[in-house]
Amino acid sequence: MLLVQVPEGSNVLVVTTNDVPGYEVKEVMGEVFGLTVRSRNLGSQLGAGLKSVVGGELKGLTKTLVQTRNEAMERLIEAAGARGANAVLAMRFDVTTAQDIGTEVCAYGTAVVVVPVA
């Protein structure tokens, strides 16, 4: 089982698996998602262009993508909580380029209510 980092104070468990060992799914609330689109920073674009010539990690873009994924996760958790779920199963990320001006990141999964198995 892989646990995904959950924002502090959240009571929604997010996993990439289809079940949670030791828990039973009592109710399926449906698909939930968290979506965000980030525009590209001109400075990081220039740095990325130069770095692509010499090779190496594009640290500015990596940092932006991590922040964007975290924001999408937070929105996913908010959506699950709003439906009354206490867990999200089969969480995945989808990342696409949005009209060549930014990056769209969507975190999605199935919102459920789980209870410990007695």
The arrangement of helices and strands along the chain is EEHHEE
Q: Mean of the pLDDT scores?
A: 83
Q: How many strands appear in the DSSP assignment?
A: 4
Spatial shape: elongated
The CATH class is identified as Alpha Beta
Name the poorly predicted regions.
none
Structural class: alpha+beta
How much strand? 35-45%
Rg over CA atoms, rounded to whole Å, is 17 Å
What separation lies between the terminal Cα atoms? 20 Å
Task: Name the CATH homologous superfamily.
Answer: Hypothetical protein apc22750. Chain B
- Compute the number of helices: 2
Family: Belongs to the UPF0145 family.
InterPro entries: UPF0145_dom_sf, UPF0145_YbjQ-like
Protein name: UPF0145 protein K3769_18805
Pfam families: YbjQ_1 (PF01906)
